Amino acid sequence: MRKIAASAATLVLLAGCGSQAKPQAQPRVTVTVTATRTVTVIRYRHHHHHPMPVATPSASPAPPAPALGCKVLTTGSGGEEFNVTTVGGGTYTGTISVSFYGPSGSGQVFPPTTVQGATPVGTWHPVPSADIGASAEPVGCTASAG
Q1: What DSSP element (H or E) covers 115?
Q2: Count helices and strands in the chain by DSSP H and E runs
Q3: How many CA atoms lie within 13 A of 131 on its CB side?
């Protein structure tokens, strides 16, 4: 707060009668006026709230490969087919490596093959007998992503 004082003004009033005939002693009245002005300054401080920095998304890791199931089915015509499915729902669109195996203890080893993608229902594919041997009859298969 700041006070500003104006200069004091002195006002002299002469009291007397309006007649000019006889000079008489006239009472003298002195009035002093002091003017004071008060200035109030109000300052508003604005606190700017800066938004929180947004984290830039980093390269998200690849989603985990889903659990895959595989089974071999002998068809009525003596051929064999295999089905690769996702376990627990969802669809996988990547490459799936499929390995076949023979009866337990047989020692039969079959070369793997690949298929593209799997769904919960799966898709039936012919067992690649040209690759694993025409007389080979795998009893099962395993599937893995990649």
Answers
A1: strand 113-118
A2: 1, 10
A3: 12
Task: Please list the residues that pair with 98 across neighbouring strands.
Answer: 113, 143
- Return the ∠ at Cα 74 (arms to 73 and 75), rounded to 5°: 110
**Side-chain-side CA neighbours of residue 114 (13 Å):** 7
Task: Look at the block and give the residue holding tokens 């104006």.
Answer: 6
What is the gyration radius of the CA atoms in the chain, in angstroms?
52
The residues, any chain, with a CB within 8 Å of residue 108's CB and separated by 6 or more, are 101, 102, 136, 138
Residue of 131, 107, 121, 11 lying closest to 71 (CA atoms): 121
| CA distances for 131 relative to 17, 75, 100, 136, angstroms | 142, 19, 11, 10
- 43-66: per-residue pLDDT in tens? 666 566 667 767 666 666 666 668
Helix, strand, coil proportions of the chain in percent (round to 5)? Answer: 5, 40, 55
Lowest mean pLDDT among 18-27, 46-55, 102-111, 116-125: 18-27
